[in-house]
Amino acid sequence: TNNALHSDRWWQMLGYDKNIDITNPKHWQTLTHPNDIESALRYLREVIDSKQNHYEIELRLLHKDGHYVPMLNRGYILRDVDGKAIRISGTNTDMTEFKKADREIVTLNRLLSMITNTNQLITRKPGSLVLFNEVCKIAVNDGGFNFAWVGLLTQDKDHLYRPSTSFIESLDHNLQKHDYNIPAIQCISEGQYIICNDLNSAD
Fold first, then answer.
1. Model confidence pLDDT, tens digit, residues 67-90
2. CA quadruple 85, 87, 88, 89: dihedral positive or negative?
3. Predicted structure pTM score
4. Of 88, 92, 90, nearest to 1 (Cα)?
5. How far apart are CA 73 and CA 78, in angstroms?
6. CA 46 to CA 44: how far, in whole Å?
């Protein structure tokens, strides 16, 4: 019939309260992430043209709120006696939590690698300058951080010793003002680690 039917649950995963009366079989393409659509169509063409009866594909669909939801689509292809595909049915699984868990595992593995390599570096007892430089490289290359720096506090804890970049000079300036609204300054002054999940608002 060249029509598509979607369950209420399918629409709910995309932020809609109930089934919407859209039967266009190509409507899902308008919701698919631009970077996924070409490979998804190519894969489906290959499956339909083959003799396979099952398919599995992962793509991102646009949520009503504007973000994309990672979906795992698994289905069955019904064929006639000549092997022509006449109907496709399937299920969609929201992969958001699975993706989140995967990212957390990757992050933990990176941190473990960073700690291990840093400990190995320390056991070699390099000079302080070499140690600091290599630790920063390990943090970036193994830990996955965008940048890393090491600063030493003076005895009065009002200055950073050996500021070598404009970023550290900026921290040094704010340290003198005791601007504890900046996570890095709070970390340095209190001697405790701080986890910041909102880098856009953290100066």
1. 999 999 999 999 999 889 899 999
2. negative
3. 0.58
4. 88
5. 16
6. 5
